[in-house]
Automatic annotation (TrEMBL):
<feature type="compositionally biased region" description="Polar residues">
    <location>
        <begin position="619"/>
        <end position="628"/>
    </location>
</feature>
<feature type="compositionally biased region" description="Polar residues">
    <location>
        <begin position="555"/>
        <end position="568"/>
    </location>
</feature>
<feature type="region of interest" description="Disordered">
    <location>
        <begin position="1"/>
        <end position="51"/>
    </location>
</feature>
<protein>
    <submittedName>
        <fullName>DDHD1 Phospholipase</fullName>
    </submittedName>
</protein>
<dbReference type="Pfam" id="PF02862">
    <property type="entry name" value="DDHD"/>
</dbReference>
<comment type="similarity">
    <text>Belongs to the PA-PLA1 family.</text>
</comment>
<dbReference type="GO" id="GO:0005737">
    <property type="term" value="C:cytoplasm"/>
</dbReference>
<dbReference type="GO" id="GO:0004620">
    <property type="term" value="F:phospholipase activity"/>
</dbReference>
<feature type="compositionally biased region" description="Basic and acidic residues">
    <location>
        <begin position="41"/>
        <end position="51"/>
    </location>
</feature>
<dbReference type="InterPro" id="IPR004177">
    <property type="entry name" value="DDHD_dom"/>
</dbReference>
<dbReference type="GO" id="GO:0046872">
    <property type="term" value="F:metal ion binding"/>
</dbReference>
<feature type="compositionally biased region" description="Low complexity">
    <location>
        <begin position="569"/>
        <end position="580"/>
    </location>
</feature>
<feature type="region of interest" description="Disordered">
    <location>
        <begin position="619"/>
        <end position="656"/>
    </location>
</feature>
<feature type="domain" description="DDHD">
    <location>
        <begin position="463"/>
        <end position="706"/>
    </location>
</feature>
<feature type="compositionally biased region" description="Gly residues">
    <location>
        <begin position="10"/>
        <end position="32"/>
    </location>
</feature>
<dbReference type="InterPro" id="IPR058055">
    <property type="entry name" value="PA-PLA1"/>
</dbReference>
<feature type="compositionally biased region" description="Basic and acidic residues">
    <location>
        <begin position="629"/>
        <end position="641"/>
    </location>
</feature>
Length: 720
């Protein structure tokens, strides 16, 4: 259904009509409307606003502006591309859809970079990719308040517009456009007036319209100021403008999405449903500011989508609630809604339900996005995942396919090997051989069965997309991997914990005082426990050094490595899994102190409770030698290493590998602590402080825009 709009200028009493250029059709959902506007003689406002025409006529679709309001805040305007298509849908809805006189059925209009749809009939907007209980109201703006350009309420606006057309339609607008728009109307009598329910409107000329409040206090103030010699308009009137300050065009559209980011929440979503949607909105808004400042030269766009996987799961129903005592019920309910998620995940009964819930939601969102943006896959669009807290562990297990059943099979195999080593009677040996033969036969039958299934039905991949970047924020993943038996190796490759075939780049972001976060690099190469994480640049740093050019630095560069007697050097030197490490500083305070501070912020610390449970037995045990030197290290824990350079060659007895063995890419990235930040308070708040950080937004976009930025720079160099 298309709506074609033409206007006449009426100059000199004659209607002149010219052919206008079609403004195109919508191409991102919604109805396929087209707009043809005739070439009209235009006059612009002195300040450079939207065009003005010479006679009063009905407002064009490009002069109307649609608005939306979230969280009961002020009305925000849609961009021109969205507003124009909503207005065309609105006009199509008002026209009859056939001989029976029924209104035309109009499809929802896709707006705000495709994240929302507008139902013009109900004047509401709703999200496409997630559920939201509160609908977002939308409003059609025709008359606007001077200065703020906020729209008048639609009912009043319609009455004023109808009265304006009845009284002034076809009349000539004032000739002089060089005068100030807000010139005083002192001494001018109102040529027309309209009474509204709580206000009244005076027309002093065709385009000098003022709104007055009819409240008693306003009337008294108006009377007093007029007796003092002030005019009615200048004392208490609000000037109104007909039509928005900017003309809506289809060229005012958002850039193409080239990268989507799935934002996965951790524990506590049951306690505060919808929190991940608000957190993702904060991250999206922060990223928009960074994009405008640093990446405005790129024609592409990164979109953030929340992944809310917890609310749809039934798990145990209300069994845990029924066995919870009534005393301090509030605190118990908070723990049931937050820390209980960790216990669910470690339970063999409910773990698969959590994994399947997140996996299905990721695939659903990707399929829905591609169906609404078919060019995304065609143009090689990329997908990254940002996970928080426990969400990092579940996402990792989905990507790698890790399952505790594997550990059980390894345990059984180990027991069988131990059985072979001990002495057995003839009868035991015979029964054991029969058991082996039976198991071997069972495996052959299972393989044949799987082969038949694979030939008829191809097993779909766990995820329907390749993960480009996996960003972990405040992640306890390292603790889970350590408890699963992963130990440092001899290679500096990310493949040791996450193969590059599954995910191109793994990045671990954490705040120094986050009690739930742990480092990943020492699980790959052990000596990285004494190399400081990469410091994330401040948002406003001028010309920061690229992360790939930053050299590693020791946490304690002046410390001598722990000496080992010659008799022990043979066993200690070659193996990175058994060698001691140099004394390292500790970021956080003791768990006891954090527990005292948790009274002030129980809700925040509750989300990190699960990580704190691991903090005591997650740390590697220290030798008596390192304990003694640890006292000296504690005294200088606040003194960060300032020397940046290649690490010096360590003593051979320290157990370090040769300096040539380094990580292919750095994985641990640390936020900088605030200058006046309290460690006690930040230990409580830091775990949930990642979402609105400009530093993190710039960090994420730096890696996601890396290839696009390099291609743009290369093309600029080629042009030069």
């Amino acid at each position: 259904s298309g709506a074609s709009l033409r206007y006449s200028t009426g100059t000199g009493g004659e209607g002149s009509e010219g052919e206008g250029a079609g403004l195109g059709s919508s191409d991102s959902g919604g109805s396929g409307f087209s707009l043809a506007a005739t070439a009209l003689p235009e006059r612009r406002r002195p300040g450079g606003g939207r065009p003005r025409y010479e006679v009063v006529r009905e407002l064009g679709a490009e002069e109307v502006r649609w608005f939306y309001r979230e969280d009961r805040k002020t009305w925000k305007p849609f961009i021109g591309y969205d507003s124009l298509r909503i207005e065309l849908a609105f006009r199509a809805l008002g026209s009859s859809g056939g001989g029976d006189g029924e209104p035309a059925v109009v499809e929802p209009v896709c707006v705000r970079s495709g994240l929302y749809e507008v139902d013009v009939a109900s004047a509401e907007s709703y999200p496409v990719y997630w559920n939201q209980t509160e609908k977002i109201p939308v409003m059609r703006g025709q008359w606007f308040i001077d200065g703020t350009w906020q729209p008048l309420e639609e009912e009043e606006s319609n009455l004023i517009e109808q009265e304006h057309l009845n009284r002034f339609k076809g009349q000539q607008l004032q000739e002089s456009f060089d005068m100030e728009v807000s010139k005083p109307v002192d001494g001018k009598e109102a040529i027309h007036s309209l009474k509204l329910s709580r206000n009244h409107v005076d027309w002093h000329s065709v385009d000098e319209v003022y709104l007055y409040s009819d409240a008693t206090t306003s009337k008294i103030a108006r009377t007093v100021t007029q007796k003092l010699g002030f005019s009615k308009a200048s004392s208490s009137g609000t000037r109104l403008h007909r039509g928005y300050v900017e003309e809506a065009t289809l060229e005012d559209k958002p850039p193409q999405t080239s990268h989507i980011v799935f934002v996965v929440h951790g524990i506590g979503q049951k306690m505060d449903q919808g929190r991940i949607i608000k957190n993702t909105a904060m991250m999206r808004d922060t990223a928009r500011k960074v994009e405008e400042k640093y990446f405005s030269n790129l024609a592409t766009h990164v979109e953030f989508l929340p992944v809310e996987w917890r609310s749809k799961l039934t798990l145990d129903g209300d069994t845990v609630d029924s066995i919870t005592p009534d005393k301090v019920r509030g605190l118990r309910d908070m723990l049931n809604s937050s820390a209980m998620d960790i216990m669910y995940y470690t339970s063999p009964l409910y773990r698969d339900e959590l994994v399947k819930g997140l996996q299905q939601e990721l695939n659903r969102l990707y399929t829905l996005f591609c169906s609404r943006n078919p060019e995304f896959e065609e143009k090689g669009g990329k997908v990254s995942i940002v996970s928080h807290s426990l969400g990092c562990v579940i996402t990792y297990d989905i990507m790698t396919g890790w399952n505790p059943v594997r550990l059980y099979e390894q345990l059984l195999q180990k027991e069988e090997e131990e059985l072979e080593d001990r002495w057995m009677s003839y009868e035991e040996q015979r029964l054991l051989e029969e058991l082996y033969i039976t198991k071997q036969r069972l495996r052959e039958i299972e393989e044949r069965l799987h082969g038949l299934k694979a030939s008829t039905i191809a097993k779909p991949p766990v995820l329907k997309f390749k993960v480009e970047n996996f960003f972990c924020m405040g992640s306890p993943l390292a603790v889970f991997l350590a408890l699963r038996g992963i130990r440092p190796g001899n290679s500096g490759s990310q493949d040791h914990i996450l193969p590059r075939t599954i995910c191109n780049r793994l990045l671990n972001i954490f705040h120094p005082t986050d009690p739930v976060a742990y480092r990943l690099e020492p699980l790959i190469l052990k000596h990285y426990s004494n190399i400081s994480p990469v410091q994330i640049h401040w948002y406003n740093t001028a010309n920061p050094l690229p992360y790939e050019h930053m050299k590693p630095s020791f946490l304690n560069p002046t410390k001598e490595p722990t000496s080992v007697p010659d008799s022990e050097s043979a066993s200690a030197a070659p193996s990175p899994t058994t060698s001691p490490v140099m004394v390292r500083r500790h970021y956080g305070e003791s768990i006891t102190n954090i527990g005292k501070a948790s009274i002030l912020g129980a809700a925040s610390i509750g989300k990190g409770l699960g990580g704190m449970l691991f903090s005591r037995f997650g740390r590697s045990s220290t030798t008596p030698q390192t304990m003694e030197t640890g006292k000296e290290g504690a005294e200088g824990e606040d003194k960060k290493a300032t020397t940046v350079g290649t690490p010096p060659l360590p003593h051979s007895s320290s157990g370090f590998l040769e300096p040539t063995v380094e990580l292919e890419h750095r994985i641990d990235f640390e936020l900088r602590e605030g200058l006046v930040e309290s460690r006690y308070w930040s230990a409580v708040t830091s775990h949930t402080a990642y979402w609105s950080s400009l530093d993190i937004a710039l960090f994420l976009l730096t890696f996601m825009y890396k290839q696009d930025q390099e291609e743009t720079d290369k093309s600029n160099l080629d042009t030069i």
